[in-house]
Write a structure and sequence with these properties.
- This protein is α/β, with parallel strands linked by helices and 732 residues long.
- Among the domains are: 383-509, no CATH class; 511-605, 3-Layer(aba) Sandwich (Rossmann fold), CATH 3.40.50.720; 624-731, FAD/NAD(P)-binding domain.
- The protein contains 24 helices and 27 strands.
- It has a 9-stranded mixed sheet. Strands 20-27-21-22-23 form a 5-stranded parallel sheet. It has a 4-stranded parallel sheet with strand order 12-13-14-15.
- β5, α8 (217-233) and β6 form a beta-alpha-beta unit.
- The radius of gyration is 29 Å and the shape is globular.
- The chain starts with a helix and ends with a strand.
- Residues 1-29, 37-50 and 393-399 have low confidence and may be disordered.
Length: 732
C-alpha cells in the first residue's frame, strides 16, 4: 500500500535526516525501550525471564494493535525538523504536535542544533516522548572525547577519550559509562551509540584510535563489559561497535577496503572478546562494520550471513538489534547500491543506515530499464532509494567533472515509474536553488547532501533565515577525504577552517571585547578570508590590494570550466567583505610608510606567492610563459603556438597542461623530474587527473630540463638520454 499522505511531509522537507528500521526489528526495539523505561539507576535490574516476558507481551500487544500506517511510522527515527517546515526544532510547537499525531514516528535523533540550554533540552525531549503513544527512541551519539554532542552544547561532564581512562580499570569504565548515561538521561535521552568495542592494536592507524578502551584484548573486554553495565544500570540503551573489530585494520572502512587478517580461532582469542563480554553484560545493540575477514568470507562482515547470523546471532548468542555501519562507505565500493541493501538484509541485519542504488551500470552492465525491474522486486524491502550511476562516484566527485546534479535525470526516471518508495538523489547538490527546483519539478522526494554541510555547518540555519548568499560554495577538492597520497587519514575543509575544530572554535569565535584597527595586506583568498574572520568578530578591518581586483590567482578560475566553483567561492568572499563592512582599497600598494600612516593596531601580510622560475638556461626567453600569462593568452586570443611544454608536474603544472590541451586545443607535453606527477594531491583527485592527462597530454617523468631554446626544450630522461622537444612556447 502506498501512503502518499504520510510521505508528503517528508517530500516537502528535503533537509530532514532520516534513519530507517526494518519491521523485523520493531518488536525487539519496543521491548528494549519498555524495559529501560521501567528502570532507574537506583533500582536493581528485574529478573530477566519474568520481566522481559511481560515486557515482550506488552510490546507485542502494542504492535498487534498498530495499523499498517502506524507501523510504517514506527520504522522512522527522524530529526524533529523532518516533521516541520521551519528551522532547527528547539521546542514543541502546535505544528509539531499535530504532525506527531498524524505521523507517530518511532524515535528522534537530536543534534547540536536542537540544544540551546539544559532546561530547553529537557523540555524538548520530554515533550517529544509524551507526544508518542509508543515509547520512542530518543537518541544521541555521545562517546566522550572527540565524539560528543551534549558536552559541547549544554555543558555535560567533560570526558576525554575512553582510552585515556584505561588505568582506572573497571570502576573507571563503569563510572564513565554511568556518567555519560546519567548525563544524557538527565536530558531525556534513552539511547547512546556507545561503547566502542574495538581494540586499538594497530598504532599506525587512527581508524579507531583512542576511541577504544584499550590496546589489550583482555583489558578491553573487561572495560567494555563494565561500560555496558554502567549504561544498563543507568537505564540507557547502548550499542557495541564495530563488529567483529576495527582496531587492527590498516585502513579506515570510510576510505577503502578494511581487512582483518585473522582466523576465527584468533578472533575468538582477540578481537571478539570485548563483544562477547559486552553481549554477556547485556548490550542492546551491535553495529557490524564493513570489515572483510578473508578466512571466513570474501564479503565484508556487514554483508556476510556467516558473520552476522552464524557468528554474531547464533555462535555468540546475541538476541538484540543488529545495525550496519554506513552503507555508503568505500569499503563497499565494489558492490552496487541495490546489492548492498539486499545482501545486508539477507545477512541478518535489522537496521540499515543508508541505501543507495545505481540506476544503471554502463559499459556492459545493466540499463535503466533493467534497474527499474530490480527496484520493482525490491519494493517490499526499500523505503528510500538514493539514485546514482556507476559511471561516476558522486560521493567523491572530482574537480574535472564539475557538472552539478549529474544523476538527477536518472533519479527522475526512477521517480516517474511511481514505485512504492521515496526517491532521493546524491551528487553535485550544493546550492538551495538546485534542490528546490528538482523537488518542485517532481523529479525527487529528497535531496542528499554531504560536503555542502561540511563546508557549511549552518546550512540549515542560513536557509531558514533566507541567507542563501552566506552559503560557502563547496569546491569539491576532496580535502575532506585526506590531504594527499601520504596523508589520506587527515580530514580538512579548504573553505571551512573550523571543520574538525568545532569544540575549540566556540571559545575562539566570540565577539571581541576591544575593537582594533587591523590592516590586511593582500586581496587574495587568504587575505579575504582573514579579513572576513576578523570583521565577523567585530574588528575594524582595512584590506589593501595593489591590483584593481580582488581574488588573487582565483581570477583565473573564471576561464577554466573545471574551476567554476572556485570562481563562485571568490565571489562569495567578495560579497562577505562588503556585507561585513570591510574597507577594501584596490589599486593600493602597501608600503611601510603608507601602512604606518594608517596607525593600525595590527598588520597581517597575506601577499601570496609568485611563480617559481626554474634555474635553467634560456628560461628568460620570449617563448617562456608563466601559468598566468598562458591563461591570459588563451583568454585574449594571443598567439600561443600548437606544441607546448609544461615544465613541472605539480598540481598547477598538471592542471595548466590539461587546460591548454582540452580548452585551447594544444598539443601538450608535461616534463617532471620526479617518478610521478601530482604526488601530493589527494588520491581521489589525483587518480582522476592522471586519467585525463593520459588521455589528452603526454607526460614524461624522470625528465630533468637542461635548457630552453627558440625551438624547444632539451631534457635528460631517466636513462640519461638527451632529448629535444619542439615547442615554440613553454610554460613554467
Amino acid at each position: 500500500m502506498r501512503w502518499n499522505a504520510f510521505w508528503k511531509i517528508l517530500r516537502r522537507n528535503w533537509r530532514a535526516a532520516i534513519y530507517l528500521f526494518v519491521l523485523a526489528a520493531l518488536a525487539v526495539l519496543l521491548v528494549v525501550v519498555c524495559v529501560r523505561r521501567g528502570q532507574t539507576a537506583a533500582q536493581p535490574e528485574p529478573t530477566p525471564r519474568t520481566s522481559a516476558a511481560v515486557q515482550k507481551d506488552a510490546a507485542q500487544t502494542l504492535l498487534d494493535g498498530m495499523s499498517t500506517r502506524e507501523k510504517i511510522c514506527q520504522l522512522l527515527i527522524v530529526h524533529p525538523e523532518a516533521l516541520t517546515d521551519g528551522g532547527a526544532v528547539t521546542a514543541m510547537t502546535d505544528d509539531l504536535a499535530a504532525a506527531l499525531r498524524d505521523y507517530p514516528v518511532g524515535g528522534f535523533l537530536l543534534s547540536a542544533g536542537n540544544m540551546t540550554s539544559g532546561e530547553q533540552l529537557r523540555a524538548l525531549t520530554s515533550a517529544l516522548s509524551s507526544a508518542c503513544a509508543a515509547a520512542p527512541l530518543v537518541t544521541v551519539d555521545e562517546e566522550g572525547g572527540r565524539v560528543a554532542r551534549l558536552m559541547n552544547t549544554v555543558g555535560t561532564t567533560k570526558l576525554n577519550s575512553m582510552y585515556s581512562y584505561r588505568s582506572l580499570g573497571t570502576q573507571g569504565a563503569y563510572d564513565n559509562a554511568q556518567t555519560l548515561a546519567h548525563d544524557i538521561a538527565a536530558y531525556g535521552f534513552n539511547t547512546d551509540f556507545a561503547p566502542v568495542a574495538d581494540v586499538w592494536t594497530n598504532k599506525r592507524s587512527n581508524a579507531i584510535g583512542d576511541r577504544a578502551y584499550s590496546d589489550d584484548y583482555d583489558e578491553a573486554a573487561t572495560l567494555v563489559s563494565a561500560a555496558v553495565h554502567g549504561f544498563r544500570d543507568a537505564g540507557v540503551i547502548c550499542c557495541l561497535k564495530h563488529f567483529p573489530g576495527h582496531g587492527s585494520t590498516a585502513t579506515d572502512s570510510h576510505n577503502g577496503a578494511a581487512t582483518v587478517d585473522k582466523t576465527l580461532p584468533q578472533l575468538r582469542q582477540e578481537d571478539l572478546k570485548p563483544f562477547v563480554s559486552g553481549i554477556a553484560a547485556g548490550a542492546d545493540m551491535v553495529m557490524v562494520g564493513h570489515l572483510t575477514v578473508p578466512t571466513m568470507d570474501d564479503a565484508p562482515a556487514s554483508l556476510s550471513h556467516k558473520l552476522v547470523t552464524n557468528l554474531l546471532r547464533y555462535d555468540l548468542g546475541f538476541r538484540g538489534v543488529i545495525v550496519t555501519d554506513g552503507l555508503q562507505m568505500q569499503a563497499l565500493a565494489q558492490y552496487t547500491d541495490g546489492e548492498k541493501a539486499v545482501r545486508a538484509l539477507a545477512a541478518g541485519n535489522d537496521m540499515l543506515v543508508e541505501i543507495q542504488f545505481s540506476a544503471e551500470e554502463p559499459e556492459g552492465g545493466y540499463s535503466v530499464e533493467e534497474g527499474l525491474e530490480f527496484l520493482k522486486l525490491a519494493q517490499p524491502y526499500v523505503d528510500i532509494v538514493q539514485v546514482r550511476s556507476a559511471e561516476g562516484d558522486p560521493n567523491h566527485p572530482i574537480p574535472f567533472e564539475l557538472k552539478h546534479t549529474p544523476f538527477l535525470e536518472l533519479a527522475a526516471r526512477i521517480k516517474a515509474a511511481g514505485l512504492d518508495f521515496l526517491v532521493s538523489n546524491v551528487g553535485g547538490f550544493f546550492y538551495p536553488e538546485e534542490a528546490d527546483q528538482a523537488i518542485a519539478e517532481g523529479k525527487l522526494d529528497l535531496v542528499a547532501m554531504a560536503r555542502a554541510w561540511i563546508s557549511n555547518p549552518d546550512y540549515g540555519k542560513f536557509l531558514y533565515e533566507d541567507r542563501a548568499e552566506d552559503i560557502v560554495p563547496c569546491l569539491r577538492c576532496n580535502k575532506c577525504h585526506g590531504r594527499g597520497k601520504h596523508d589520506i587519514m587527515t580530514t580538512v575543509c579548504s573553505v571551512n577552517p573550523k571543520f574538525g575544530f568545532e569544540a575549540v572554535d566556540r571559545y575562539l569565535a566570540y565577539p571581541v571585547d576591544k575593537v582594533k584597527d587591523i590592516a590586511v595586506i593582500g586581496g587574495g583568498p587568504g587575505g579575504m578570508r582573514t579579513a572576513i574572520y576578523l570583521a565577523d568578530r567585530g574588528h575594524k578591518v582595512t584590506l589593501l590590494e595593489k591590483d584593481g581586483h580582488l581574488g588573487g590567482k582565483l581570477v583565473f578560475s573564471q576561464q577554466v570550466p573545471f574551476k567554476h566553483d572556485l570562481f563562485r567561492f571568490m565571489s562569495y568572499q567578495i560579497h562577505q567583505l562588503d556585507k561585513l563592512g570591510v574597507d577594501v582599497r584596490l589599486n593600493t600598494e602597501a608600503t611601510p610608510e603608507s601602512v604606518a600612516a594608517m596607525k593600525p593596531d595590527a598588520v597581517i601580510s597575506a601577499v601570496g606567492a609568485d611563480a617559481f622560475i626554474l634555474p635553467v638556461p634560456g628560461v628568460d626567453g620570449s617563448n617562456v610563459l608563466t601559468a598566468e600569462e598562458a591563461y591570459d593568452r588563451v583568454k585574449s586570443g594571443a598567439p600561443l603556438g600548437e606544441n607546448l611544454v609544461v615544465l613541472g608536474g605539480g598540481l598547477v603544472g598538471c592542471e595548466t597542461g590539461l587546460f591548454l590541451a582540452t580548452e585551447a586545443g594544444k598539443k601538450v607535453t608535461i616534463l617532471e623530474m620526479l617518478p610521478e606527477v601530482a604526488t601530493d594531491e589527494m588520491h581521489l583527485t589525483r587518480d582522476a587527473l592522471l586519467d585525463r592527462l593520459n588521455e589528452h597530454t603526454t607526460v614524461i617523468t624522470k625528465a630533468r630540463c637542461t635548457g630552453i631554446t627558440a625551438n624547444g626544450v632539451t631534457y635528460v630522461d631517466g636513462d640519461g638520454n638527451l632529448t629535444i622537444t619542439n615547442a615554440p612556447f613553454v610554460r613554467h
